[in-house]
Protein backbone atom coordinates (compact mmCIF):
# COMPACT_ATOMS: atom_id res chain seq x y z
CA UNK A 1 0.00 0.00 0.00
CA UNK A 2 2.81 2.42 0.89
CA UNK A 3 4.49 1.62 -2.40
CA UNK A 4 1.30 2.46 -4.32
CA UNK A 5 0.90 5.80 -2.56
CA UNK A 6 4.55 6.60 -3.21
CA UNK A 7 4.15 5.82 -6.93
CA UNK A 8 0.99 7.96 -7.19
CA UNK A 9 2.73 10.88 -5.49
CA UNK A 10 5.83 10.43 -7.66
CA UNK A 11 3.71 10.38 -10.81
CA UNK A 12 1.88 13.53 -9.71
CA UNK A 13 5.16 15.34 -9.00
CA UNK A 14 6.58 14.35 -12.37
CA UNK A 15 3.38 15.39 -14.17
CA UNK A 16 3.25 18.78 -12.49
CA UNK A 17 6.96 19.36 -13.01
CA UNK A 18 6.81 18.61 -16.73
CA UNK A 19 3.57 20.44 -17.45
CA UNK A 20 4.84 24.00 -16.89
CA UNK A 21 7.86 23.40 -19.13
CA UNK A 22 5.79 22.98 -22.29
CA UNK A 23 3.42 25.74 -21.22
CA UNK A 24 6.21 28.21 -20.55
CA UNK A 25 7.91 27.43 -23.88
CA UNK A 26 4.69 28.08 -25.76
CA UNK A 27 4.08 31.18 -23.65
CA UNK A 28 7.62 32.47 -24.33
CA UNK A 29 7.14 32.01 -28.07
CA UNK A 30 3.81 33.85 -28.00
CA UNK A 31 5.13 36.66 -25.79
CA UNK A 32 8.23 37.03 -27.94
CA UNK A 33 6.36 36.91 -31.24
CA UNK A 34 3.87 39.55 -30.09
CA UNK A 35 6.83 41.93 -30.13
CA UNK A 36 7.55 41.30 -33.81
CA UNK A 37 5.74 42.77 -36.82
CA UNK A 38 4.91 39.30 -38.20
CA UNK A 39 3.31 37.40 -35.32
CA UNK A 40 1.97 34.42 -37.29
CA UNK A 41 5.20 33.94 -39.23
CA UNK A 42 7.19 34.17 -36.01
CA UNK A 43 5.05 31.63 -34.15
CA UNK A 44 4.95 29.13 -37.02
CA UNK A 45 8.69 29.42 -37.62
CA UNK A 46 9.66 28.97 -33.98
CA UNK A 47 7.16 26.21 -33.24
CA UNK A 48 8.34 24.27 -36.29
CA UNK A 49 11.78 23.89 -34.71
CA UNK A 50 12.00 21.33 -31.89
CA UNK A 51 14.72 23.38 -30.18
CA UNK A 52 12.11 26.01 -29.33
CA UNK A 53 10.59 23.83 -26.61
CA UNK A 54 13.61 24.41 -24.39
CA UNK A 55 14.87 27.73 -25.75
CA UNK A 56 15.22 31.07 -24.02
CA UNK A 57 14.91 34.32 -26.00
CA UNK A 58 18.49 34.01 -27.26
CA UNK A 59 17.70 30.47 -28.40
CA UNK A 60 14.62 31.71 -30.21
CA UNK A 61 16.77 34.36 -31.93
CA UNK A 62 19.20 31.62 -33.00
CA UNK A 63 16.31 29.58 -34.41
CA UNK A 64 15.05 32.64 -36.31
CA UNK A 65 18.56 33.21 -37.71
CA UNK A 66 18.77 29.59 -38.85
CA UNK A 67 15.38 30.01 -40.54
CA UNK A 68 16.55 33.13 -42.37
CA UNK A 69 19.64 31.24 -43.51
CA UNK A 70 17.58 28.29 -44.77
CA UNK A 71 15.13 30.50 -46.69
CA UNK A 72 17.94 32.66 -48.10
CA UNK A 73 19.78 29.53 -49.26
CA UNK A 74 16.62 28.21 -50.93
CA UNK A 75 16.10 31.59 -52.61
CA UNK A 76 19.69 31.66 -53.87
CA UNK A 77 19.15 28.18 -55.34
CA UNK A 78 15.96 29.43 -56.98
CA UNK A 79 17.84 32.41 -58.46
CA UNK A 80 20.62 30.14 -59.75
CA UNK A 81 18.02 28.00 -61.51
CA UNK A 82 16.39 31.06 -63.05
CA UNK A 83 19.74 32.34 -64.31
CA UNK A 84 20.14 29.21 -66.43
CA UNK A 85 17.02 30.02 -68.42
CA UNK A 86 17.01 33.83 -68.33
CA UNK A 87 16.97 35.19 -71.86
CA UNK A 88 16.04 38.79 -71.12
CA UNK A 89 19.18 40.88 -70.42
CA UNK A 90 17.31 42.99 -67.83
CA UNK A 91 16.16 39.88 -66.01
CA UNK A 92 19.66 38.43 -66.17
CA UNK A 93 21.17 41.62 -64.71
CA UNK A 94 18.65 41.79 -61.87
CA UNK A 95 19.09 38.10 -61.01
CA UNK A 96 22.89 38.44 -61.01
CA UNK A 97 22.57 41.37 -58.61
CA UNK A 98 20.36 39.23 -56.39
CA UNK A 99 23.01 36.52 -56.29
CA UNK A 100 25.40 39.04 -54.74
CA UNK A 101 22.77 40.17 -52.24
CA UNK A 102 21.88 36.65 -51.18
CA UNK A 103 25.54 35.67 -50.91
CA UNK A 104 25.94 38.61 -48.52
CA UNK A 105 23.00 37.35 -46.43
CA UNK A 106 24.26 33.76 -46.32
CA UNK A 107 27.99 34.39 -46.00
CA UNK A 108 28.06 37.53 -43.86
CA UNK A 109 24.82 38.80 -42.34
CA UNK A 110 23.44 35.63 -40.80
CA UNK A 111 26.76 34.16 -39.60
CA UNK A 112 27.50 37.49 -37.88
CA UNK A 113 24.02 37.50 -36.34
CA UNK A 114 24.41 33.95 -35.02
CA UNK A 115 27.86 34.68 -33.62
CA UNK A 116 26.56 37.83 -31.93
CA UNK A 117 23.67 35.92 -30.36
CA UNK A 118 25.96 33.16 -29.12
CA UNK A 119 28.47 35.63 -27.71
CA UNK A 120 25.78 37.76 -26.05
CA UNK A 121 26.31 40.83 -28.22
CA UNK A 122 22.80 41.37 -29.62
CA UNK A 123 23.39 44.80 -31.18
CA UNK A 124 25.42 43.12 -33.94
CA UNK A 125 22.65 40.56 -34.41
CA UNK A 126 20.12 43.39 -34.79
CA UNK A 127 22.35 45.18 -37.28
CA UNK A 128 23.02 42.04 -39.31
CA UNK A 129 19.34 41.10 -39.38
CA UNK A 130 18.52 44.62 -40.61
CA UNK A 131 21.15 44.22 -43.32
CA UNK A 132 19.66 40.88 -44.39
CA UNK A 133 16.16 42.37 -44.61
CA UNK A 134 17.53 45.27 -46.68
CA UNK A 135 19.42 42.92 -49.02
CA UNK A 136 16.24 40.95 -49.75
CA UNK A 137 14.28 44.16 -50.32
CA UNK A 138 17.03 45.56 -52.55
CA UNK A 139 16.94 42.38 -54.60
CA UNK A 140 13.20 42.82 -55.08
CA UNK A 141 13.63 46.50 -55.94
CA UNK A 142 16.10 45.62 -58.70
CA UNK A 143 13.08 44.39 -60.67
CA UNK A 144 11.40 47.83 -60.50
CA UNK A 145 11.20 48.03 -64.27
CA UNK A 146 10.01 45.16 -66.43
CA UNK A 147 10.57 42.31 -66.25
CA UNK A 148 8.65 41.66 -63.07
CA UNK A 149 10.37 39.78 -60.27
CA UNK A 150 10.02 36.01 -60.47
CA UNK A 151 11.07 35.73 -56.81
CA UNK A 152 8.77 38.20 -55.05
CA UNK A 153 7.42 35.63 -52.60
CA UNK A 154 10.89 34.40 -51.69
CA UNK A 155 12.24 37.93 -51.24
CA UNK A 156 9.29 38.77 -49.01
CA UNK A 157 9.82 35.64 -46.92
CA UNK A 158 13.51 36.40 -46.38
CA UNK A 159 12.74 40.05 -45.62
CA UNK A 160 9.98 39.19 -43.15
CA UNK A 161 11.98 36.44 -41.40
CA UNK A 162 14.94 38.83 -41.13
CA UNK A 163 12.64 41.42 -39.56
CA UNK A 164 11.42 38.81 -37.07
CA UNK A 165 15.05 38.01 -36.24
CA UNK A 166 15.79 41.71 -35.83
CA UNK A 167 12.86 42.11 -33.43
CA UNK A 168 13.77 39.08 -31.33
CA UNK A 169 17.44 40.11 -31.16
CA UNK A 170 16.31 43.58 -30.04
CA UNK A 171 14.71 41.97 -27.00
CA UNK A 172 18.19 40.87 -25.94
CA UNK A 173 19.54 44.45 -25.80
The count of DSSP E runs of length 2 or more, i.e. the number of strands, is 0
How helix-rich are the residues, as a percent range?
over 70%
Radius of gyration: 21 Å
Shape: elongated
Query: How many distinct helices?
Result: 6
The SS-based structural class is: mainly alpha
> Proportion of β residues?
under 5%
Q: Give the termini separation.
A: 55 Å
**Residue ranges: pLDDT <50 for 5 or more in a row?**
4-10, 12-22
Main sheet characteristics? none
Mean pLDDT: 89
Q: Could you state the oligomeric state of the chains shown? A: single chain
Listing every helix as H and every strand as E from the N terminus to the C terminus, the arrangement reads HHHHHH
Short description:
Helices cover 80% and strands 0% of the residues. The chain has six helices and no strands.
What would you note in describing this structure?
- Helices cover 80% and strands 0% of the residues.
- The protein is elongated and about 55 Å long.
- The N and C termini lie far apart (55 Å).
- The protein has helices at 2-33, 39-47, 57-85, 89-118, 122-141, 152-170.
- Mean pLDDT is 89; it is low at 4-10 and 12-22.
- It is mostly helical and 173 residues long.
